[in-house]
Amino acid sequence: MLDQVSDLIREVAQTVVLPRFRKLSADEVHQKSPGDLVTIADQESERALTSGLTALLPGSVVVGEEAVAADPTVRDRIGAGGAVWIVDPVDGTNNFAAGKTPFCVMVALVKDGETAAGWILDVVADQLTVAERGSGAFRDGVRLKTRADAPAAADLHGVIARKYLPDFVLEQVDRHGDALGSRTTGRHCAGYEYPAIVTDVQQFAMFWRILPWDHVPGTLIVRESGGVARHLDGREYRPVNHRRGLLAAANEEIWQTVQTTLFLDGPPVVED
């Protein structure tokens, strides 16, 4: 089924998403909330993926970003058991709408609350990263492994997505973050940030708002490549969690270094 889902994602990207890139009219872009855009490509991609994925796995259900925007209770399907597809029809919509890259199509399969497989397609680069629980992660058929060494904090580069960070977290990040080698606010596309950890473009990424379609595929890819993805207090991230704060890193030692460097006063603990 991995290959069938891969083929479906590529087909939808090539026939639905890419033809709209830099060709959107004003009436094909709308705001779901201030600064949060949706385009006709998001809507059509989600419909096509929903139809194709449920056909591949009869009895499965879909939790898509746009379906949840229309009805927030759809998200509850993730914890209801059985096979659930999580779909981000265009990850990086604001980039896509502005005619910029990166943007991706992302899918994950969750079985009984645990991530079984994840797919991230960089649409313009046509690079597909896939992971299956217990079987590793691959980019276009080549096995991926994260770096295994333990650099000092000053030698680490990564992302701290500041947009949703509350003041009590920002205060610690701003006070201690200069001890890290460098940090950016990211490329506004989670589907870019996770594979970038695996390929050592960066060594870590930290987020506050954790919507499942943004993070379930990438966290599995990082873990299956040898990396770590946990909440800021060290608790494991799972698709059913509503807790805020997530740190992904290339390995255990790097995760510990980033976490203890940023949160010298202790990590923030946020309940579900």
Keywords:
about 270 residues; about 30% helix; alpha+beta; five-stranded mixed sheet; seven-stranded mixed sheet; Fructose-1,6-Bisphosphatase, Chain A, domain 1; globular
Task: Summarize this entry quickly.
The protein has 272 residues and is of the alpha+beta class. It is built from eight helices and 14 strands.
Account of the 3D structure:
With 272 residues, the chain is of the alpha+beta class. It folds into 2 domains: 142 residues, Fructose-1,6-Bisphosphatase, subunit A, domain 1 (Fructose-1,6-Bisphosphatase, Chain A, domain 1, 2-Layer Sandwich), CATH 3.30.540; 110 residues, D-Maltodextrin-Binding Protein, domain 2. Helix content is 32%, strand content 25%. It is built from 8 helices and 14 strands. The strands form 3 sheets. A 7-stranded mixed β-sheet has the order 3-4-5-6-7-8-9, with helices on both faces. Strands 11-10-12-14-13 form a 5-stranded mixed β-sheet, sandwiched between helices. α1 runs antiparallel to α2 and α6 packs parallel to α7. The mean pLDDT is 96.
Radius of gyration: 18 Å
Q: Tell me the CATH superfamily of the largest domain.
A: Fructose-1,6-Bisphosphatase, subunit A, domain 1
One letter per element, helices H and strands E, the order comes to HEEHEHEHEEEEEEHEHEHEEH
Determine and state the CATH class of the largest domain.
Alpha Beta
Low-confidence stretches: none
Output the strand order for the largest sheet. 3-4-5-6-7-8-9
**Mass-distribution shape:** globular
How far apart the termini lie comes to 33 Å
DSSP strand content:
25-35%
Q: The CATH topology of the largest domain, please?
A: Fructose-1,6-Bisphosphatase, Chain A, domain 1
- Largest sheet entry: 7 strands, mixed
